[in-house]
Amino acid sequence: MRDFVKTLLLGAALAGLGATQGWAADLAEPVVEQAPAQVAYAEPYSGWYIRGDVDYHWSKFKEGEYVRYGDPTFEDGRRGTIDGDLDEAWSGGVGLGYQINRHLRTDLTVDYLGKADFRGDTVGECLSDPLLTCTSTDRSSYSAWLLLANVYAELGTYHGFTPYIGAGIGGAHVKWDKLTNTIEDESFEHDGEKGWRFAYALMAGTSYCLTKNLDLDIGYRYAHVEGGDMFGYASGVGPGEDGGINVHEVRGGLRYKFGGGRSECGAPEPVAYEPVEPVYTK
Length: 282
What we know:
Blueprint: H1 2-26, E1 31-33, E2 38-41, E3 47-61, E4 64-68, E5 78-86, E6 89-101, E7 104-125, E8 133-154, E9 161-176, E10 179-183, E11 186-190, E12 194-209, E13 214-231, E14 237-257, E15 262-264, E16 267-268, E17 270-274, E18 279-281
Antiparallel strand pairs: 1-18, 2-17, 3-6, 3-14, 4-5, 4-14, 5-7, 6-7, 7-8, 8-9, 8-10, 9-12, 10-11, 12-13, 13-14, 15-16
Domain Outer membrane protein beta-barrel: 36-258
Keywords: Signal
Protein name: Porin family protein
C-alpha cells in the first residue's frame, strides 16, 4: 500500500512538471530591439571671434558756432554760425566678439575714420566795415577713432546668408586739423581741437558663410558723434565748436570664429554619440 502511494505521488509530480514546461514553451521569448543611436551636436554658433572691416563713409557736418570780435568765451562774446560739408573718406577697424547663440552676438570694435576734408563758410561782419556783412571761407579736415560696444540680433540663416540688425554705444576721439579762415583776401589760421565725445551707432547687414569658421560681412552703419571743440582763438575770432557729425558707412569685412563648430555652413557638427537604453518588445 505504501509503495502504491509513493508511485501515485511520483506520477502526479511528473505530470505537473510536464504541464509547467509545456505552458512555458507556449510563451514567446522577449526580443531586444536597439533604438537608433542618438547623436550629440556641437552648438554651431557659440564662441569667440575676431573681425576686420574696411568701409567707405561720408559725413554730415551739423551747423557749428564760434565767438567773434570779442572776449574769446562763449559766455561773453558775440556768436556766429559756421556751415560746411565734409568729403568722403575710407576707414578700417578691428574687433573682438562672442557669438552667444544662433540669434545673438556682441563685440567690441575700434575703427579709425580716415581724414575727411571740410569746406565751410561763415557769415559775419566785414573787417573793413563792421556795418557790412561779409562771407568768409573755411578749410580744415577731421579724423576720428571710434570705440563701440555692440550687440546684434541675427534673423536666421537662409542658404548661407544671415541678415542682422544691431546697435552700439561708446565714444569717439575727434581730431580737427588747423582751420584756415579767409575773408576779404586775408587769411587767418586757427589751431584745431581734439578730444573724446559720446557716440552711438545703428547697423544692418548680412553675413555669408564661407567656411565653418569664416564669414563674409557686408552692411551699413550710421554713427552719430556728439558736438565738441573744433578750433581755437585767433585774431579776434574763436573758439569754435561743431554741432556734431553724422557718419554713414558702407562696410565690408571678415569674421573668424575660433574652434570647430560647423561641418558645413549652417549645419551643426556631430561630436559624440549618446548611449541609449535597449527597448524590449514581445
